[in-house]
Amino acid sequence: MTEERAEPRTLAFEWRVWAAENLLRGVPREQVLAGLRDEDVPPDEARARVHELERSPAFVAAGAIARRLRQLELVLELQARLAEEAPAPGVERCSEALPAARFYQRYYAGNTPVLLERFADGWPALERWRPEYFKRRFGDVEIEVASRRESRLDPDIHFAATRETVTMADYVDRVLASGPSNDLYAIANNRNTARPELQALWDDIRPPPGYLDMSRVAGASALWFGPAGTLTPLHHDTSNILFVQILGRKRVYLGPPRSRGLLASARGLYNHADCERLAPAERRAAGVIELTLEPGETLFLPVGWWHQVRALDLSVSLALNCLQRRNIYDWYKPGALGA
Q1: What is the fold, at CATH topology level, of the domain defined by 89-336?
Q2: CB of 244 within 8 A of CB of 119?
Q3: Residue 9 has pLDDT above 80, yes or no
Q4: What is the pLDDT of residue 6?
Q5: Confidence band (pLDDT; 50, 70, 90) for 40?
């Protein structure tokens, strides 16, 4: 009787990928070989394939990229560890009028959020921008809103499917009648501030000197208006924004660009993470900060910072990104990089 011999086992593709990943991460060669032997890969086969792998032009090129990646990861780690030394997590508050030069030097250039308590001091909008005012002053103006949001998956990502054109008067009536809801919202992508019929809104704001280029305000701003309960999911923008809370309160969650946890769950400009569902310990690990934005307060949202926003009351907000410094960072989309 002839004894059948088992065919020598060759290293499967998945194990070659495993070996490459570990070698590129800096795992010693002998440790990788030991791991393959533990999976019953014949020693000669393991050595031959690892030898072949290490001399592959693609592996040599990947090694240079991996070294650069490790350098950048060390930068992130340094920033994360230094941030842990802060006395308490939170957003800085500025209770005095902050000169524009100081704002740009300290917060804009530092990519640091700050809550400006006096940025909107004296704005007529703080008294006027109520639903009744919008209806009386702009009632016949047609605007675009996002509707039927609660019946759609990812309505903010697929905002085009939620577009509806209504008069301002009709929209105000629907907001007042809705109660807490995320079904109806006038959002940034509706581009209402660019409408010629709404340009009189700019008579109601008085930004301090040096912050904004008011010649661009119509095309570089956004009016957010909706009932309590509206939700903007976790995302980041590709510009810096001054977010002025006019009416009502909003709960804001902020996460730094350096957060590895949030980078890992990124999907384009948006994120799979839901800060409202994360346990406090998970939020702390991700560097997430929570705050409540009150009427009259302005939050500086630096480019790249993750933020999630929930309206606690019927709310009107104005987002301004017509800053007087360079403010287009469309290349910053780490979540768009494929696995």
Answers
A1: Jelly Rolls (2.60.120)
A2: yes
A3: no
A4: 47
A5: confident
- C-alpha to C-alpha distance for 297 and 118, rounded to whole angstroms: 7
**234, amino acid identity:** L
Q: How far apart are CA 290 and CA 288, in angstroms?
A: 7
Domain boundaries, the chain: 13-80, 89-336
How far apart are alpha carbons 269 and 304 in whole angstroms?
9
> How far is residue 333's CA from residue 267's CA, in Å, rounded to a whole number?
9
The DSSP string of 177-214 is HH-S-SSEEB-GGG-GGG-GGGGGGGGG--PPTTSB-G
pLDDT digits (tens, 9 = 90+) for 41-81: 899 989 999 999 999 999 999 999 998 888 888 888 888 78
Pairing of strands 266-267, 114-116: unpaired
Average pLDDT value for the chain: 93
Query: What 8-state DSSP symbol labels residue 285?
Result: H
251, 312 Cβ separation under 8 angstroms: yes
Q: What token pair was written down for 178?
A: 């809705």
Q: Can you read off the two tokens belonging to residue 231?
A: 């939700």
Coil/strand/helix, residue 36: helix
Handedness of CA 134, 241, 195, 158 (dihedral sign): negative
* Cα 159 to Cα 156: distance, rounded to the nearest angstrom: 5
Amino acid at 142: E
Is residue 173 within 8 A of residue 110, CB to CB? The reply is no
Residue 25 CA, distance from chain mean position: 28
Q: For residues 197 and 88, what is the distance between their CA atoms, to the nearest angstrom?
A: 46
Half-sphere exposure of 180 (CA within 13 A, CB side): 7
Structural contact between residues 177 and 215, judged by C-beta atoms closer than 8 angstroms: no
